[in-house]
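Lecture 7 notes: from sequence to structure.

We start with a single chain of 384 residues. Read the sequence below before looking at the structure.
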Amino acid sequence: MRTAVRRAGRATVHLLIAAAMAFGTYLFITVLLITVVGTLAVVGAWLLPETVLLVRRIAGAKRRLTTAWTGRGIPEAYRTIDGPLTERLRTALRDPGTRTDLRWMLAHYVYGTLIVLALPLWPAGLVVDGVRCGLLRRRAVVLPWIVRLADLEAGWSTALLRPSPEALLAARVEQLSATRADAIAAHGAELRRIERDLHDGAQARLVALSMRIGLAKRAYDRDPDGARKLLDDAQEQAEEALTELRQVVRGIHPPILTDRGLTGAVRALAASSGLRVTVDVDGLADHGPRAPAAVEAAGYFVVAEALTNVAKHSGSRTATVRLTRTGRGLRVAVADEGRGGVDESGGSGLLGVRRRVAALDGRVRVSSPAGGPTLVEVELPCVW
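Now the structure, written as tokens:
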């Protein structure tokens, strides 16, 4: 009985909040009417996208309430409303999510009324300490109905608020468009970095090398010792230019990935990081199937960037790297016990990580509360 009472208590809280939201949607009818009249009169057309955004927030609150009761999330699929007024109007009207939310709101006026009318039944079912048989029988009958009513209300809300396939497709297309734009931006930044490195590094050294060789040729007959010294300097310049070129190549695709695979490359990276790094590997065999080259490169750069952040900003001298093969791809996690409080806009390099991972349709999760610890976790989808 106690379990039934507790569940009925949760159902009561859910239904009370749902009833309050239903009452709020009744009041919202005024806003909808003003928006319709203003839009038809043209002068109030700006109200339409703002009202749609407000409806989205109300529907989002209902999704969270329903998820809290059922334990199953209800996805959202909306197009971004921004830009000039004409673009905002077009998006607000054409977005399938707008029709889904309005359909739910209209239905909510009906079944929300049923919840409000059922309010008088609840106190009778929540008597906890009744000693008379009549009260006990009343609880036994009413408590299950309260739970069923909450389940019924949540089921209706779930069915009405679930995005349509058209809305999910539109949201997916918008997400891929944004991802593609980020990938192009990241690619352009990478090309500019390579060009800058070649111009300021290897090219400058090769120009100096050419000049020294020319001077050595001129001085060879009249000053053999001076020519020999110039040739020694030229050899040093050539070695430095080769080092610069290796660094540029390593920035494009580390050769160690090709030679040792992701596991060996990450272990080498950990050994050279200056930190005490523990590398855990789950499901990645040294001689087994490998992830695609782009996925391995992304995972490698995630680890490299994260360990650089640990060394520069966290204050921790230890870190843990975990590589896990999952059913959907590769999971990379880097953790430290440093001071935390990572600021992604403060030059931590995480924006570049997000762009690189987004280009592969992956996900990045960063947890870094003030005082630590910090966890950077990346999911990279791929077929093994």
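The chain has three domains: 2-163, 173-252, 255-381. Keep this in mind for problem set 3.
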